[in-house]
Amino acid sequence: MVRIVEERKPRESTPKQVAVAVRSFLRPGRDPRAGLTLLLTCLAVLALSCGDGTSKPDPIDVSPPAAVTDLRAAVLSPGDLVRVEWSAPADDGSERVTAYELRYSDVPPTELLWESLHSIAGAPTPRAPGSAESLSVAVAFGMRYMALRSVDEAGNVSPISNVATVVGVDSIPPADVEDLAADLAGDVSIGLSWTAPGNDGEEGTALEYDVRFAPDGPPMGGWEEAAALPHPPTPGSAGTRETLQADSLQDGRRYAFAVRARDSIQWSAWSNVIEIDTPDHIPPGAVSTLEALFVGGHSVTVTWTASGDDDQRGQASRNDLRYSEEPITAENFDDALAATVPSPRPAGDTESAVVGELELEREYYFALRVEDEAGNVSDVSNVIAATTVTRQRLTSAGSNGGSATAPSWSPDGQVVVFSASFGGSEPPDIYTVPSTGGSPARLTNDLSGSTDPTWSPDGERIAFISNRGGRPEIWALDLAQTTDPVRIVTDDQPITTCSWSPDGTRIAYSAIDAEDSREQNLYIATLGADEAPFELFAISGAGVDPAWRPDGLEVAFSFYWRGLSSILKSPAAGGNPRTVSSRRGIYSTPTWSPDGSRIACSIEPEGSMPALWTMNSAGGDSLQIGYGQQPELYPAWSPDGRAIALSVGDDLDIWVYYLE
Q1: Residue 157 CB: number of other CB atoms within 10 A?
Q2: Is the N or C terminus of the chain more exposed, i.e. has fewer CB atoms within 10 Å?
Q3: E strand map for 227-362
């Protein structure tokens, strides 16, 4: 029996089919196992068809279809469809393409932007090259430009076609809303209203609204960053009154609102911005950190951490600080005396206030309430007590290995200037500190050192002694400027101490005698005058520490000669000096009381340490007012006459002694 078996020849694969298989294998999302099987099969068959060497394989297709160059688009009446037309391109010269890719955007398409454009579904099956192709699509938001690409059977993609502008698309946006208004609809609800714009300007009906809101004012980055209110109304015809309610807002906050409308193609600009506050029923939080920071003779500086407008958030409107000699409670808070305090700072900041005009050595109680702009008042703070003193320390240079000397009061009595070294070996510089207590502020930074500061009567400048110019001279620092100090008095002899006249036109100073360094002479220099300083005192001995009488008619100074010491005073216009002191001892640094009736100075009796004394400026009547337990030097009488600043201690720090 003969079995006839049909001989089957291997199926041939063309190079184009191999290319299709390669592209299919590499296409994203394709099952790699299926693509690999197809690829290996095609390659094997291709190898068999070419294996006898008698024929050459067809080349692989890598040529893309031609680009479409006549794409055009127009809106059909009544305006809800776009008609797109073009001529079918050719693949490999004469073959038809396999598929079309149509896309649109609101900016002209490019190769770089292609994947981000909006796709258009429903493209027709390609026809023969040169055939008329067309497609009608619904008008969509942002449909201003169109382009297409074609794909052949090998997966080759043509370049982007010419860009077609959609002719007839609505170019008139809705009118801008200009009358957005807001009213309270409840404690945490706000009602919005506005007049509906049209589809084209003020005509027709818009498609939708976009209503945005932002707490605490319009957003810095633009309204697109703000939150959208849900469920805006469907636009009515132009002129219709629209309303929308914003609910579940926060109590006591300011909200800003804006609205815009769009048609099928584009948005209007944002409306006028309306801002409105929800009612504030939340009081500021009670302060619990009140404490006494500095305690003086006539003042107490209190400090605390600011609470907020709403509990511990925001910024309140008013601080109400009260003080009394009786314990303060919620019931008697309004009966206590009100202190002058600054406006509140943002929540969490440190605040402080100086309560003045207190009596010496009295116990006072302090408490605080905070109020917001809606009139809500916090609970009473923690209550603190402080007892005023007769002595107050202003610096701590001595405890750090340095010293602080030569205090001088500002004309308003608020600040004390002094010379200090806060580190053991560093040269002294000029500092200021609040007369009620605080942190010292450095004014100079001079490697040669700065000493003996004195305040100008107008409070705008400070004069001091410095060697920065090569020898000790008088320099002045303008407190309102950031410039370096300027030299105001120079002398061939080294200057040691200085004092500004009450009218601000002259400087009295002492200088070491050029022929005998044991002697010091006193001079008066007229500022800004082209004349030599006037010699006030030049006899054997040392005259230092000049101090002007408040009316400028006399100058008091310390005098030393052969173990003798006293306080002298001399007419400022020149003349014989007269002795003021009547006790034995070493006298230094006189200072006049504001009324000119007394002079305070440091006296070191034999065998004792320097102590603070006062005497009648006419002579005699000496009275020790210092404690005499440690050195008391460089006194300076306060402008109100109620206190004296001086250097106290073995290492010397600035203290204030209260007299009354």
Answers
A1: 15
A2: N
A3: 227-228, 241-246, 254-262, 274-277, 291-295, 300-305, 318-324, 337-338, 350-355
